[in-house]
Amino acid sequence: MKVAYVSPLPPERSGIADYSGLLLPALQRRADVKPVRRGARRLPRGADVAFYHIGNNPDAHGWILDLMRRHATRVPALVVLHEFVLHHLVGGLTLGRGDAEAYRAALQAEAGPVGRLLGHAVVDGLIPPLWETRAQDFPLATPVLELTDLAVVHSNYVEQRVRSTRFDGPVRRIPMPIWPDPPTTPDAEVAGLGAGVVFGSIGYLNPSKRIPQLVAAYARLRDVRSDSVLVLAGAVSRGLELEPLLARHRLERGRDVVLIDHVPEERLWALLSAFDVCVSLRVPTMGETSAMALRALAVGRPLVVNDLGWFAELPDAVTAKVPVDERETDALAGVLATLAADPSRRAAMGAAARAFVRTEHDPEHSADLYLAAIEEAAGGAAVERAVLDEVARAAQDVGVDPYGPELEDVGRLAREVGLGG
Amino acid sequence: MRIAVCHPQVPFERGGAEVLSDTLVAELRARGHETELLTVPFKWYPPQRAVTNALAWRLLDLEEAQGKPIDLVIATKFPSYAVRHPNKVVWLVHQLRQAYDLDRTDLGEFDETAFDRALRRTVHRLDNQTLGEARRLFAISANVADRLRRFNGLEAEVLTPPPKRLPYRSGQYGDFVLSVGRLDRAKRVDLLVRAAASINRLRVVIAGDGPDRERLEDVAQSEGVDGRVEFAGLVDEEQLAELYSRCLAVYYAPVDEDFGYVPYEAFLAERPVVTTRDAGGPLEAVVDGVNGIVCESTPADVARACLWFAEHPAVARERGQAGRGLAERLTWDSVVGALLS
Q: Does residue B266 contact residue B291 with C-beta atoms inside 8 Å?
């Protein structure tokens, strides 16, 4: 069986390219998997199934959705939804290409007349772009799902969201693969700070990563743990006034809070290894799985997350979960204080984190599950037809209308044993 | 208790699995339970038929019969465990092995087309669902439980079936090695037939019948051992007990067998067993140097093992007797107790 693998790939810089860099070789050891070059307009000749990776960035994934459209109905499509909210992607492929009507149509398909009106309002500049303000309310996953034969997701959260759409194909949940034995030498700069406890957060620094809440919570801890440091690593978004935020909480840059604006890939592991506690907050969620959170677990670090989406599904033994409500900052301050005061708890969480990642997120294990999904996507519909046709023929032979209500029970029981989505 | 024992039936075939189901029904009845054996004819080819058959089991309504509830359903092998019941216990004889360990081997059934690959995955999902929903999951051997863990991530308790009740006895250690069982390729009786070519002083008696018989007779002829290899065909219980009681040793070396009664039966007649390292289930009973010989799966190694017993009859007796305790510990009381617990 020939599999066309359609994804951003290294050396392209993105989480999904890294993901494919890890998964592709493991898959190629199991099946005939041909990577498709970026921008290709055709799948490899003779492909039995196409394996598409879809994220929200139109620059990285626009060509993939184009390819899906060209091969729809001809080559079965297995689609990994790296995020459920694809509003930005769809916006890029419609408005970004000057096709306002296609954008309005997508919104209408999702939310009826209200969606269409909102589309008009966005196009006419009457309201801010929905992808910046309310993307989670209008995820626009349907334009991708309607081209999908089998959807792969990484979390129960996204699985439920997919099942809440009109998509009636199979949905398989497969853990995101992560490096099982990453380097763990601590970053020299952070280690050189000589702090008693280092809290760290890596990623684009913006309000949705809850940086204001984190800084406020950390400021309370800093009053009682003067030997602690908060490291914020990543580019600062335009929407976040970081310096005034630190000043407001009387935190001194360089002493209390260390900012590292650019983190090359090779330094990520070292930074994570230098932290005593990793913080990976995110509200709202777009249904994404955080590779950074998994990396932190892979190096055996306790992880602080919001109790939301995929993050809420992580085991309690490896994470401390912070609610998303008015108590968020208080709860976060409490969690930071507890972890700062209890090195043995941090060690236990770290050991559990390493074991969890090795078991659940091992690339070989993921590749086995992907191979099952690939084989199902390639021939599953034909199998279903063959089996159900046999039942329908038998029904017809004895005078029962195979499409009548008498066979509803058969359909229900078939679904119970894995036939029919 | 009203109990339905579910067992798929391959028409006109009878082997260890059928013996197990029949005996289970008899033992449950003997303990006062109203018990019925339910069968549906099973065909596994073309491969999609296996899934259709599973769906047929799923469609059965076994929650009650004639207005009275069925309290317990005990399912045995694929696809009978697809049956739906709130109190379903599975005593797993085997899954559709062609979809698992036998895939891409000579005994496999699924080819490399997208259809067959997907069909194999359908069987996996069906097993995950229908075995996973059982209230309790037992396997007849550690080998079967291990496959279930490896391929489906499901845990089963091992519940070894007791051997058939025969008029077992122990007589003289004679001049022949006995093979017992259905004659099909996976039972690998040809290893013993070929081994016979190099053991002039030993005879081989093959009890049982099956689709591989003609080929085995050809092998015997081409190896020039016609006179020393006897195909006894199907034998009754008395004849079988007699053969066990007079043989030197028992050969039993299928390819990765699920379980295998034969070693336990041999032990009850105080006979040592020759088996091979890749035999699967029999290795849970036969311990090399204790109650038999475990050798490589080549005719030469099998021949060497048989000859060794011929040259050391006292050790043959000693090892046969050593196995007896193991077989005697397997009782229907403990099996029924576990299944109904």
A: no
